[in-house]
Amino acid sequence: MTSEFTPAPLVPALDFANRQIPAHGSMGVDYEQRVDFHRLRAYRLDRAMKSLEASECGAFLLFDFYNIRYTTQTWIGGALGDKMSRYALLMPDGKPHLWDFGSAAKHHRLFAPWLEEGHSHAGMLGLRGAISPDVGLMKEAVTVIKGMLTDAGVVNDPIGVDLVEPAFLFEMQAQGLKVVDIQQHMLDARAIKSPDEIMLLSQAAAMVDGVYQDIVDVLKPGIRENEIVALASKRLYEMGSDQVEAINAVSGERCNPHPHNFTDKIIRPGDQAFFDIIHSFNGYRTCYYRTFSVGSSTTPQHDAYRKAREWMDLAIDKVRPGVGTDEVAALWPKAQEFGFANEMDAFGLQFGHGLGLGLHERPIISRLNSMTKPVEIEAGMVFALETYCPASDGVSAARIEEEVVITEKGAEVLTRFPAQELFVANPY
Fold first, then answer.
1. Residues sharing a CB contact under 8 Å with residue 42, sequence separation 6 or more, in sequence order
2. How far apart are CA 301 and CA 311, in angstroms?
3. What integer pLDDT is reported at residue 216 of this predicted model?
4. Is the pLDDT of residue 9 over 90?
5. Concatenated DSSP letters of 271-313
6. What domains, with CATH codes, occur in the chain?
7. 373 close to 362: Cβ distance less than 8 angstroms
8. DSSP letters along 147-192, please?
9. How far apart are the C-alpha atoms of 123 and 101, rounded to whole Å?
10. Residue 109 pLDDT greater than 50, yes or no
């Protein structure tokens, strides 16, 4: 007997312009609308295909770890992310081919059924030169790709590449392929987040909310910066993080200028300390600074914090659809106004950057680039805003970062740990 049952269509995504963005746990449930991974995969591939169709290219050959995940919906350990051996080929039929590290290809055949049968291949190009190009792995790979392009009728069109090793580029050119840069196209595709991506970004931020409470509880004289990093990393992995990319822990005399790292420095009474927690949940990242004083605080520390918060609030109030990134950057002080010779020296201190599968996506907001080539802010963008103010004591500094989702009504802040005033941890 043939069933007449017709599956119900997917429930429309939540309208985040009129409802607070949720931060669900990692479970899937039947009684709430949460992240729909089928919808997420379809959205990302559709965005990539629209970029391909709008380009001059016959195909995109992708080496960027994030672009591979965006188009093939696959991921393997971060240790292989910079080895330039995983790659994907996106062609007009919308059925990506993926070449992955050894047995990972067989795993995808078993557990990633959205990849077309026969489209998951084992591949190896050389691990950034550890296997010499003279072995011929790159030549063989280009020959296979060229054959696929020929079969698809696009071998004479330009082939877009996002990242590439020189030896592989030279081999493509030697075999008669015209190569063009399409990293800009892929960054444009990834700039507007779907509701599912936004919920994953919210979940990632909520995990860091909790880690900051853990940090505050132990932020006392005698603890070292590296111990805070260890605590935060452990807690994030316990909560379900799939990668702790980096954690900055900066205290005392190391705050000014900002070194963008951590050491084994012992934290002392009255130190100012700031932290940046960068991790991902289901691939979606955070970049989330908070500043504290340890046990007690000083007037210069409070003054610096108030100024950094003022610059932050001006930016949050400004960002909304239709606003240019130059208008946001103009709200922040020039480099010379807070102790730097020029905008290159001060880059990354008064700063905004897109968040998604990658840590630095569109838009990038700073006086270094935004004043000459601004980007229009759009609904669906998610980015982090960062401010920094050195204190008049010459040692301390305040660092604040908020992640925001742009809705039709403006910005909704994802980062919730208290930051309106300088937080004194474990006062005495």
1. none
2. 16
3. 98
4. no
5. -EEEEEEEEEETTEE--EEEEEEES---HHHHHHHHHHHHHHH
6. 37-182 (3.40.350.10), 192-425 (3.90.230.10)
7. no
8. HHHHHHT-TTS-EEESS--HHHHHHHHHTT--EEE-HHHHHHHHHS
9. 6
10. yes
